[in-house]
Write a structure and sequence with these properties.
Helix content is 44%, strand content 13%. It has twelve helices and eight strands. Uracil binds next to helix 6.
Length: 282
């Protein structure tokens, strides 16, 4: 507990407790924290030969990681998902952080889906309805699915973090999950991926891309190509809430191109009209 980085973590936690969400970190500090984050992620990698046991560090990276086992039980996909959901409700690695709300918002959709969509964390609306993506971002997502000729029942929708990130005196305001919160919940979503075995994963937004794929930078540099999660092709694209804020035709078209790539990947028919969506008319 006497490393310089422990003092940084303590300082950040104290700032966060005072409602401060952004601080400047120099490169050395950032590298130190990143190193801890990467180390915290290591034990939770799925081992292809032992797919039923997934482990995670129990607490924040500054304490010695204790391994918590996640056991996937059940004969079929719904039963297996139910077993992960049961364990998620009381998932110690997330609970010990003390920074997340109480209500578990697990996932929704088709366990046999070819497409698995992963967002960052539930917000106010999702916590109230105990369903992912039911607020304004969820409505935008519904429009995107509709344009793809899909419904929520055709796909599987989940979040990296299963509890709404808490803020002091929180009302309807939401915040992005921290790296610690994402690392704590990562085994849960990895277990879902293991069970669903989708043909394609779509990571929504930069925060999800950081937590799920360990990517850094802007979505603009991550999108437009294939990545991989547990051997499954994964596409990073803009978060629907960014679309709501930005509204630019360029962002809409970029997201749509990612969706077209997903549709192509799983062999969905694509009409000429779909191909032309959001193209500027010349
Ligand atoms: N944003 C997310 O990333 N997930 C949700 O469930 C809702 C909004």
């Amino acid at each position: 507990m006497n490393r310089p980085v422990d003092a940084v973590i303590e300082f950040l936690q104290s700032e966060q407790a005072h409602g401060i969400s952004h601080v400047f970190l120099d490169n050395e500090t950032r590298d130190g924290l990143r190193e801890l984050y990467i180390r915290a992620r290591k034990p939770i990698k799925l081992q292809p030969d032992i797919p039923r046991e997934i482990t995670a560090p129990q607490a924040a990276p500054q304490s010695a990681p204790q391994l918590i086992e996640l056991i996937i039980e059940g004969e079929d996909k719904p039963a297996k998902l139910e077993s992960v959901k049961r364990q998620a409700a009381d998932w110690a690695p997330a609970r010990v952080l003390g920074t997340l709300c109480e209500t578990l918002v697990f996932a929704t959709g088709n366990p046999d889906a070819k497409i698995m969509l992963i967002g960052e964390a539930p917000g106010y609306h999702e916590e109230r309805e105990v369903q992912p993506f039911v607020g304004p971002a969820g409505q935008k997502l519904g429009e995107i699915l509709h344009a793809m000729d899909l419904t929520r029942e055709d796909i599987y929708i989940s979040n990296l973090v299963k509890f709404r990130p808490a803020t002091p005196k929180q009302t309807t305001n939401n915040r992005k999950p921290t790296s610690q919160e994402m690392a704590a919940c990562l085994p849960l979503v990895m277990a879902e991926i293991e069970i669903i075995k989708p043909a394609v994963i779509i990571a929504l937004g930069v925060t999800t891309a950081e937590g799920l794929l360990n990517l850094q930078g802007a979505v603009g540099n991550m999108r437009g190509k294939w990545h991989e999660v547990s051997g499954i092709p994964a596409r990073v694209t803009y978060h629907p809430s960014y679309l709501l804020q930005s509204g630019s035709n360029e962002v809409k078209r970029a997201l749509w191109e990612d969706m077209l790539a997903v549709m192509e990947k799983i062999g969905m028919p694509i009409s000429e009209r779909q191909r032309r969506f959001f193209l500027t008319k010349s």
